[in-house]
């Protein structure tokens, strides 16, 4: 058929494009129903008025955002001041998520590199061992971590028995306990992307660098890290984003004094005394910050690729 035209006057490329759109429709429908629609609901709720017994009143207002950033006194008639309570919770969430990401990278990169350099027949076993904890629900794993770290838990018993400490360490209900919970929960999210990147790395480049008398540190910094950078960036995003909105580790391991933004949002939707518009506004602030960070990552990646 001349010009590759299909019956009805359309070309083969047009037919392929239509077929591709039809095949993608189920995916778009799922994303629309389970991702886009809930976000739209949260956006709308964040601009509504709180109902006294929970829920919302369909009266548009910016009160939820005003409550997050400003303190106007108990009756709302005072001069507005910065609401440091919620800003402090937000800042605590950022540095806890950032520290969890750094710790996961420091442990995850050597782990992924070690696994990727094992014989091919044993790599699957190592990856299997890394993913075993994820066969158990996150709630159960976090409760197990609380049992391990408590004053009368196995960790303190072991340290007391070997004489390293004279009295139990107070770990539960501290920032350290939250950090350990986040690190334990999301470490495999760092290991697996880096492992996939290192596995594709051409190790003959490292051998060539050694032949040119480059030190191991120089080879790592100048050759290996730039080559596996996409895996490192993916791992950092996969750890930082869920850590930022986590609420199980802060709730179970941190207590009331170590609230994070995920715990704050969760509290607004519990029972009949919650504040749905405020919870929705806090969610949108969190989502906006994550999107900004991802845009910065993407911009930096494009600049790095352009300069390469």
TrEMBL record:
Name the PROSITE patterns for this protein.
ABC_TM1
* InterPro entries hit by this protein: MetI-like, MetI-like_sf
Q: How does it sit in the membrane?
A: Multi-pass membrane protein
Output the CDD domains linked to this UniProt entry. TM_PBP2 (cd06261)
Keyword Translocase among UniProt keywords = no
Q: ABC transmembrane type-1 domain: from which residue to which, for each copy?
A: 90-297
List the transmembrane segments.
28-48, 94-116, 123-140, 176-198, 231-249, 276-298
What family is it from? Belongs to the binding-protein-dependent transport system permease family. CysTW subfamily.
First-listed, main subcellular location of the protein, grouped into a coarse class: membrane
Specify the protein name: ABC transporter permease
Q: Does the keyword Membrane apply?
A: yes
* Entry's localization field: Cell membrane
Keyword list, A-Z: Cell membrane, Membrane, Transmembrane, Transmembrane helix, Transport
């Amino acid at each position: 058929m001349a010009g590759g035209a299909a019956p009805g006057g359309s070309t083969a490329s047009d037919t392929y494009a239509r077929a591709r759109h039809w095949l993608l429709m189920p995916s778009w429908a799922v994303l629309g129903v389970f991702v886009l629609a809930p976000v739209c609901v949260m956006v709308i709720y964040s601009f509504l008025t709180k109902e006294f017994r929970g829920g919302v009143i369909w009266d548009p207002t910016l009160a939820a955002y005003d409550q997050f950033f400003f303190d106007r006194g108990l009756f709302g008639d005072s001069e507005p001041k910065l609401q440091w309570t919620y800003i402090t919770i937000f800042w605590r969430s950022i540095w806890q998520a950032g520290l969890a990401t750094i710790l996961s990278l420091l442990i995850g990169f050597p782990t992924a590199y070690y696994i990727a350099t094992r014989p091919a027949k044993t790599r699957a076993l190592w990856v299997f061992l890394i993913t075993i904890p994820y066969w158990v629900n996150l709630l159960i794993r976090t409760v197990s971590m609380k049992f391990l770290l408590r004053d009368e838990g196995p960790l303190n018993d072991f340290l007391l028995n070997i004489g390293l400490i004279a009295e139990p360490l107070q770990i539960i209900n501290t920032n350290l306990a939250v950090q350990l919970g986040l690190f334990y929960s999301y470490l495999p999210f760092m290991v697996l992307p880096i492992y996939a990147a290192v596995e594709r790395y051409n190790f003959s480049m490292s051998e060539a660098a050694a032949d040119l008398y480059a030190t191991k540190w120089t080879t790592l910094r100048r050759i290996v890290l730039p080559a596996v950078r996409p895996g490192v960036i993916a791992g950092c995003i996969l750890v930082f984003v869920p850590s930022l909105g986590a609420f199980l580790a802060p709730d179970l391991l941190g207590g009331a004094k170590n609230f994070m933004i995920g715990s704050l949002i969760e509290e607004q939707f519990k029972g009949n005394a919650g504040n749905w518009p405020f919870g929705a506004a806090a969610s949108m602030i969190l989502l906006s910050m994550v999107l900004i960070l991802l845009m910065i990552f993407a911009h930096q990646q494009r600049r790095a690729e352009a300069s390469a």
